[in-house]
Amino acid sequence: GEGAGEGAKEEGEKGDEEGEKPEGEAEAPAEQQEEEEAPRASSSSPPPPPEEEVVELTGKELSARVDTLLDVITKFVFSYCRRGSFERHKLIIATMLTFRILVRQGKVDELEVTMLVQNKPDPSAPPMPENCKTWMTEGMWGCCKTLEQLSAFKNNNAALLQNLEQDSLGWRKWYSEEKAEVTELPRSFRGLGDFHRLLLLRALRPDRLMSALKEFVYQAMGAHYIEQQPFDIEATYKETDCYTPMFFVLFPGVDPTPAVEKTAKSVGCTEANGKFVNISMGQGQEKVAVHALEKAAKEGGWVMLQNVHLMQSWLKSFERSLELVTEYCVPEFRCIVSSEPPAMSDMKIIPESILQKCIKIADEAPQDLKANLRRAFSKFTPSQLETVSKPKEFKAMLFALCFFHSLILGRKKFGTWGWSRPYQFNDGDLTICGDVLRNYLEKYDQVPYEDIRYIFGEIMYGGHITDAWDRRTNNTYLETLIVPELFSGTFNLGPNFKSPDSTKLDYAGYAKYIEEKLPLESPPIFGLHPNAEIGYLTQQSEMIFDTIQGVSGGSGGGGGGTKKEDIVKGVIEDFLGRLPNNFDIVEIKSKVKELTPYIVVSLQEAERMNELLGEIRFSLTELQLGLAGALNISEAMEQLSNSLVINRVPGTWEKKAYFSKKSLVPWFNDLLERVKQLVAWTDALDLLPSLWVSGLFNPMSFLTAVTQVTARKNGLPLDDMTLRWTVTSMKTADEVSSGPEEGVYINGLYLEGCAWEDGKSGSEGQLVDSKPKELHPLMPVIHVFAVTNKEMSWDSMYRCPLYVTSMRGPTYVTTANLRMDPDEDPKKWILAGVALLMADD
């Protein structure tokens, strides 16, 4: 009582406003005293808020609440991921998320997701019936056999392979539909569910899979995961603080600066008052940038550092500066960084810690032909069009230049069919070419078309191009567009797109012409066959599932399915059981009577095959022992195991092998065929009637042997020899009974970009347009022989590059001559990207 009284007396001296405790009242608990003392600390503090009422949720209400939270959190996380992702990656993220959720909800089986992702053909598939061979490939047939593991494709009513044979016409009709993903399936499979339909499209129509995936995600998850709102910098600004910079990925046609300046101005930061600093990074700007960063952090300003990818050696220092300013920055401070994406996907130009710290924004502009042409023309001003001595010529040629720029940018979407290698054409190339055009027209009375084409094609744009065949394509566009016929009034820049009359249009007229007259984008406007669109879409769908395999270890869902170790053991047993023995090089050499160039090539091929077979046998046996516990699992063994699971050729095998884009199972079957031919060749120690040249490690060495044999036989200098290619009427190697008197017969080549029409009455055939959906038609047997350079005629011949795979670029082998219609211009086939391939991917 005494203690309580003294406490009350002390409180009383502070005044009644602070709250008196009547003498003799029991002392409150410590917790209550703390709660009471908090408001006493300041007379202006508001009273504590009343405690929220706790609402007990019923089972259904709790379940609904959890579902709502899951839905909202999932949407927000996906939005954050999507905002910083490239356009080509957004569908991949949405697809992976959808599969993971559906698997965990039990709506989709993990095994089915894995089958969709891997798309493995079944090696035990029965022979394909003849009525299916007219529209299906062996790979498709094997993948359909794999689908029969699922009850949806094999039950008492219908088995997929059996139905494909029985109703081949119905299936062929569905296969030929432009939009097979929404077309009704043949009668026995009309009840197939949406996910199982994806499996069928993956096997038979992979080009329609992207469209089907978008619809599947839309139906399963909602429009939010497919349809994206335009980027809103105001909403993004609210997520930032002084510790979290914004990182803009720069794309052609998108400049974030105006939006950033507007947002900064709304909070009182402008260049005029010194609180907004915009620095374009380059040599000598390092100290300026650091000083601006430190000043803005102290005074509460905004600093925007643009094009930091140009300063890679400085980025580590910048990384440290960002860390230091966060220790003393004021809340109003903001940092904005911008950079172009790396030229190659495996390049790293920005330190990881900077990316992790930032809010990342990848706001890509549309990359279709109209957007590219609109953006290209906007790089020039009305005054530039009118203040020239030859406005008619300048306007027409400048518009053709802008169209050319748009075409070579748009052609990139078709992958290696468009350009053999990736190139970074930019707006600087366009504007400088515009200046060159203006200067040349001012200097010369007559338009120097050839000089202008040379500067554009060989110097400005050609400066980016490293591949001779791509340079040919680039120059062919210029030879087609920069021509005197531009001013005729009837000249077409592309299909159904005339060159406008430059005497009737001003700057605004040209801009209107682009919006109203440019046809819808399609492969023919680039000079390509419509099949190029199928090839592009097929590559995109393959890229989606290759990426999913790479980041998820071979599956697309969350748990379940066959145990990884069991899959690996099964693959090892299968491969080791079918792997051939190494070649006995000593025994083969002992049987050689004359070491001809052809025998030398066969021995070289056998030696390289031994290296590959030895690597496969050693690595599989080592992994088998590791799984059995006899050896420790090494990193190399773990990588091999992952490759076997995801049906990808292991890296150590690829180093000893040959260029190939096949997945593991088809690659291994292809390897066995190569060994089979090599066994026949080394047993005979003589040329085979027709050689599957695609089955060689180094096909060029064999083709070189053809010229060596002819040169030795006729006593001619090897440097004066070249190869002549004549396409025969024999469809397959089985029709060849014996080799030719001169040269060799080869088989196994495919065409890309066109087809081959057989000749009549014994004459040689010629190149013709591709058939719809026939991307890589098989060529007949080809007679290759050597002639002197003087004897070689290129009249009515197309110089056709030969590549190992559709990867083109580094897989180039040699140049073949293929006959074409005498009335046709080779420019048609050049722009169509026509090439010979040694493998159908």
Summary, kept brief:
The chain has 841 residues and is α/β, with parallel strands linked by helices. The chain is built from 32 helices and 17 strands. It is globular.
Account of the 3D structure:
Helix content is 47%, strand content 9%. It is an alpha/beta fold and 841 residues long. A five-stranded parallel beta sheet has the order 2-3-4-1-5, with helices on both faces. Strands 8-10-14-9 form a four-stranded mixed beta sheet. The chain has a four-stranded mixed beta sheet with strand order 11-17-15-16, with no helix packed on it. β2, α14 and β3 form a beta-alpha-beta unit. The model is unreliable at 1-43 and 555-561 (pLDDT under 50).
Compute the average pLDDT. Answer: 89
Portion in beta strands: 5-15%
Radius of gyration: 35 Å
Q: How far is the N terminus from the C terminus?
A: 95 Å
The major pleated sheet works out as: 5 strands, parallel
Number of strands: 17
Low-pLDDT windows of residues: 1-43, 555-561
Helices, by number, come to: 32
* Biggest sheet, spatial arrangement of strands: 2-3-4-1-5
Helix content: 40-55%
Shape: globular
Q: Structural class, from helix and strand content?
A: alpha/beta
